[in-house]
Amino acid sequence: MIEESKPEYRSGIGTDIHRVVEGRKLMLCGVYVPYPAGLAGHSDGDVGLHAVIDALLGASGMGDIGMLFPDTDSKWKNADSKKLLFIVKEQLEEKQWEVVNVDLIIHAEEPKLALVKGQMQRCIAGLLDIDFTAVNVKAKTNEGLGEIGAGQAIAATATALLRKKRKRTL
């Protein structure tokens, strides 16, 4: 007789914020966004992918982005955040976790992101090897309030749901 274990699910939340600075490309969710400024950070400053990474790490109980990719390690200086997410995906697979879905909010007054949200969604889904419909990307302004509303920073908030791969026993 084949017996299947009940699936285990875990959710995680991730956030990130970076200051807008001149002289850098704006990378959001692995996508280059044409804009005259980018985001400060030890890596490429991609707040979208950083929030997703933190949500995945939190759901799996594997710490946070600062533990895995410390800004004190020159190895991660100017790192492509797509590479960081791929490393996390590999670690999730080693621990038998699969991504069920990701929901992400980009908090930015500028630039307007409506035309690139689909690209962001496809990029995240491709990096995680999940269906496009399992990723949702939203963009919100801060209605002119705070550093984000003044255009001085961009932030992101993500949630992720993981499922433990089922074990089948005889």
Could you describe the 3D structure shown?
The chain has 170 residues and is α+β, with helices and mostly antiparallel strands. Helix content is 28%, strand content 32%. The protein contains 5 helices and 9 strands, in the order βββββαααβαβαββ. The chain has helices at 47-60, 65-68, 81-94, 117-128, 146-149; strands at residues 3-4, 9-22, 27-28, 31-32, 37-39, 97-107, 135-140, 153-164, 168-169. The mean pLDDT is 93.
Please write out the topology.
Elements: E1 3-4, E2 9-22, E3 27-28, E4 31-32, E5 37-39, H1 47-60, H2 65-68, H3 81-94, E6 97-107, H4 117-128, E7 135-140, H5 146-149, E8 153-164, E9 168-169
Parallel strand pairs: 6-7
Antiparallel strand pairs: 1-9, 2-5, 2-8, 3-4, 6-8
**Beta strand %:** 25-35%
Taken in chain order, the helices and strands follow as EEEEEHHHEHEHEE
Radius of gyration from the alpha-carbon trace, in angstroms: 17 Å
**Count of helical stretches:** 5
The shape is: globular
Helix content: 25-40%
Q: Determine and state the CATH class.
A: Alpha Beta
Q: Point out poorly predicted stretches.
A: none
Please provide the count of β strands.
Answer: 9
Count of all domains: 1
CATH superfamily: 2-C-methyl-D-erythritol 2,4-cyclodiphosphate synthase
CATH topology: 60s Ribosomal Protein L30, Chain: A
Overall mean pLDDT stands at: 93
Structural class: alpha+beta
Sheet of most strands: 5 strands, mixed
- From the N-terminal CA to the C-terminal CA, the straight-line distance is 6 Å
